[in-house]
Amino acid sequence: MCKSTFSTQDMMKSTCICLLSLLAPSAAFVAAPSASRSSTTTRLSAQESSRADFLRDVTTAVVGVTAAVVQQPFPAFADETLPSGVAIKVVKSGNGPQPDIGELAAIRFASFAGENKIDDIFETPEPYYTRVGSGGLIKGVEEVLPKMRVGDRWVLTVPGNLAFGAKGRPASAGKPRIPANAEIIFDVEMVGLPGKEPELIELIGDN
Length: 207
Known about the structure:
207 residues
């Protein structure tokens, strides 16, 4: 099976071209002079009206689906795949420092399981604070955080065994169910390194 190399923009362009070709007769009618439009309208058959309604509904549906796809940060391809299987797509590169193990890091992120959004804190007043290496996030993300610099924004494709594993996660208030071994898309930005705790570094280790 061949892998498609079309981007989301390519998909949108192809869809628009296809729809425009289908809508061409309707467009020609809309552009008709007003003097003849009334008589033309009376001659429209029920079948033609139905076709126009159908095309309008299809156009609305395609636009809605395309918008939903664009909102999800699924990478078209990976810039790097780690030996563990975590794939990294670089969205933005920063030039700040990298965190040490045990360092408090401020991050923003959104995560997805299939079409379901799990979390999104890109628009919240405060970022999420986590100790790098403390195990507060799924394993695939914990593996990647020490590699990031302040200002980096990466989209990670995390295999199920480094996410919620064979147990998955049941649905809860405001949170969707995550199936067993579900692949997780994790869009993460390193926004700051507000401080360190040497005691925690000694506890966790520097590797």
